[in-house]
Known about the structure:
The complex is a heterodimer of chains A (332) and B (396). Chain A is of the alpha/beta class. Chain A is built from 8 helices and 8 strands; from the N terminus they run ααβββαββααβαβαβα. In chain A, the strands form 2 sheets. Chain A has a 6-stranded mixed β-sheet, with helices on both faces. With 396 residues, chain B is of the alpha+beta class. Chain B has 3 domains: 13-144, Ubiquitin Conjugating Enzyme (Roll), CATH 3.10.110; 147-194 and 212-293, no CATH class; 296-393, Ubiquitin Conjugating Enzyme. Chain B is built from 9 helices and 13 strands. Chain A: Residues 1-75 are annotated as: Disordered.
Amino acid sequence: METPEPGQADGEEQMVELRPRTRSNPEGAEDRRSSTGSLNNSLASPPQPAVGSRVEGEGEAASSDSPLTSASAAAAPVTIPPSAELHLRAPRVNCPEKVIICLDLSEEMSLQKLESFNGSKTNALNISQKMIEMFVRTKHKIDKRHEFALVVVNDDSMWLSGFTSDPRELCSCLYDLETNVCESFNLEDLLNVILQKIELPQMENIQTIPPPFVVRTLLIFSRHAGMLQFNPSDAAKKMLQSPYFFFDVVYLHNGTEEQTEDTSWKDVYASFSELDSKGMCYCFEVSLCGPALELHNCMAKLLCHPLQRPFQSHASYSLLEEDDAPENEATV
Amino acid sequence: MSYKSGRVWKMNSLSPEVALSRISPELRPLLCSVVRNGRVGLDSSSCLRITDLKSGCTSLVPGPCCDRFKLHIPYAGETLKWDIIFNAKDPELPPDFIFGEDADFQPEPSELPHLASWDAGKPECLLQLVKELLQQYHQYQCQRLRDSSRLLFEYDSLLEDPNYGRSMEIYAGLKNSWTGEFSARFLLKLPVDFSNIPIYLLKDTALDPGEDVALLSVSFEDAEATQVFPKLYLSPSIEHALGGSSALHIPAFPSGGCLIDYVPQVCQLLTNKVQYVIQGYHKRREYIAAFLSHFGMGVVEYDAVGFTKLTLLLMWKDFCFLVHVDLPLYFPRDQPTLTFQSIYHFTSSGQLYSQVQKSYPYSPRWDGNEMAKRAKAYFKSFIPQFQEGAFANGKL
Lengths: 332, 396
């Protein structure tokens, strides 16, 4: 089937010139091979965005040289996790997601420190509940095949609901939750609870064949539990390394206000980042004492499909006032 | 014609497996090639069916020993029911045929190569013979058109056109016994090229696609061609790809018109639809590529198979919002729908707070890049009032 190249931008956006489509190079596929690995696969390979293509650091050719990426690289360092080159990436297809929302119910979630829009104080649980509802409903609106599950995290984790594609089913479990004092955070337990409920796809060719679905864990976490004590089982390690599993985190912290233990929130945040061996997960930190707006915005950024979203460090959402300037890096 | 009923087996027709289990073993290979996907006419969605499987042997002969059956053959919108009679005791011999009610259909043996050199050892032999008989039958029906000079003219003019002449089935056996009125049906395979329809549109149907084909059936209810009823049949996946049942709409047959003018018109209409759909796919793909280029860092999701939708996450002065873009089948003729959504607000009834925009500055003549630029400008102009509206009317 003949398909033309995607339209090319002119002038200011300076898209990379795709090689002309010929018999030996259908759809400019050789340029695209480095990002999707597919040749002549008009179904699975999305149009090549010359701007915003992910930098993989594994000997990718032209796609990473677009002026825009290098401009943003000048603005802030591009972080490429060192082990990224060892991980194959699935094609950028919007397959159904199975999203496991893990909500921390430690008492920090009910501290009334977040500043809501009208200036009054609210708590993280409140905002999280609303944003989870927004999240599942929006995902459902975008694609009715997405499925959701709810896990609550106390001293250990409990699977409350799911998987379901009906957002109302999940939301019905969402609002009757209470926080309590939690001693510790058992990450292994959480991962085991998840392991028991999912089975990740095994595809013959990771880079060219889209999976039937991907699994994403979305952890909203706020307790001061110190560094993560984490000895993952083999099964958990395998899950974390799968190209079809993502572990996104929103970490709500007290900022620099309290440094009660030896570890500061930055250390905890760093240890979450270390879970992300593929460099493809999203990890946000939000201050519990700041504006609730930040938490809202993080959840919005987490709407992005894990196979289609840019590396977190590349993500940028601004609508600029000026017409021709390149987009800025987003603040994380 | 049975596109709508697909492969529904009627109560009295035998499934291939049952028929094959009951037929005399020597005849089984011949029957096999007929019942397993044997197709003889233009209507390739309909299979040949078997009923009334019987044996000419005495009851002393142990089964399975059936050697005769009725074969149902779709033809020109009718179903012919031909008796095919073998002799289980002499399986080498070719069968006899009884051509239903068409008692005066006498095929010319010299036009039946597979009868002349019948080889019971070749499994395809019966199927080929049936095809040859059907061609003869077609000729026989065309002869009957002589009863109406008008219809004969229609036939002759189509015959001359290589586009249609070789893919016709005529049934002129309809006669109104009260009025003596003569009528006929023409079934034409339309030479429309469906090969470039994007595969995802065809894959989506759960029906057996078979061959992608368009058939035009034209019924002449009277010999003077004053009552003419055309009908279009598309194979299920094509119908789906072209937008569903609306794809079957064709102009009425003009009074005083003739097929040689009308049929090309229908072909052109279909070809245009196919082109629209193909073009739409490529245009949508170009559009999404351009939008990813302009907004790529903020993409939430996009349809990477059919390019029918895209959701963007954008921020304006710390205000985050979503834009859902829905691209219609006949894009760019039809304008994409934009739905703006606030991520902070719900409506008073608890729904997501969003606003649909269907008529914003747009031209189908812009290329994808221009559309992206104009969309960006539109977003910038619209967002302030959207934000205001969200905070005024939405619930946090």
